[in-house]
Specification:
Distance between the termini: 15 Å
Number of helices: 2
CATH architecture: Roll
Helix content: 10-25%
CATH class: Alpha Beta
CATH topology: Thiol Ester Dehydrase, Chain A
Largest sheet: 5 strands, antiparallel
Order of helices and strands: EHHEEEE
CATH superfamily: Hotdog Thioesterase
Length: 142
């Protein structure tokens, strides 16, 4: 485990873009939402399930709750490592957890926590009805 995280936590890297920052070079708090979404998409893809596949099958995961705890500011051009894992699987929803770190490079071992987040996602059918989450929705992992 890294910093108390599950062994199977997904890892995604991105670089803070200029457009995501204010005049002081600090990433705006709203920038974290698309970063988390990007990390979730890649976490799912690594487990053999893409959003595109789900949508083609008439399924949708919709965010019903988002919680972000900011600890430190991310700044322009910094490399951000996002670790993603399934925290809880409910009958018709799943809670994913995220920890965002500042790192010197994608290969760097040292991490500084920037934020922690959770999303609760409900599984909906084509008609918008709530569906039970299949045990194999996210595959076997990597």
């Amino acid at each position: 485990m890294t910093s108390g995280l599950p062994e199977d936590a997904g890892v995604h890297h991105l670089r803070v873009r200029y457009a995501e920052t204010d005049q002081m070079g600090v990433a705006h708090h709203s920038s974290y939402v698309p970063w988390i979404e990007e990390a979730r998409t890649e976490w799912m893809r690594a487990r053999g399930r893409s959003y595109r596949e789900m949508e083609d099958q008439g399924l949708a995961l919709t965010v019903v709750r988002l919680d972000i705890r900011y600890r430190e500011s991310a700044r322009y051009d910094e490399v951000i490592r996002i670790r993603t894992w399934m925290d809880v699987q409910h009958r018709a929803s799943v809670t994913l957890a995220y920890r965002l770190f500042r790192v010197d490079s994608p290969e760097a071992a040292s991490e500084q926590v920037l934020a922690e987040a959770e999303t609760r996602l409900a599984l909906l059918g084509r008609d918008g009805s709530l569906l039970r989450i299949p045990d194999d929705l996210f595959g076997s992992g990597v």
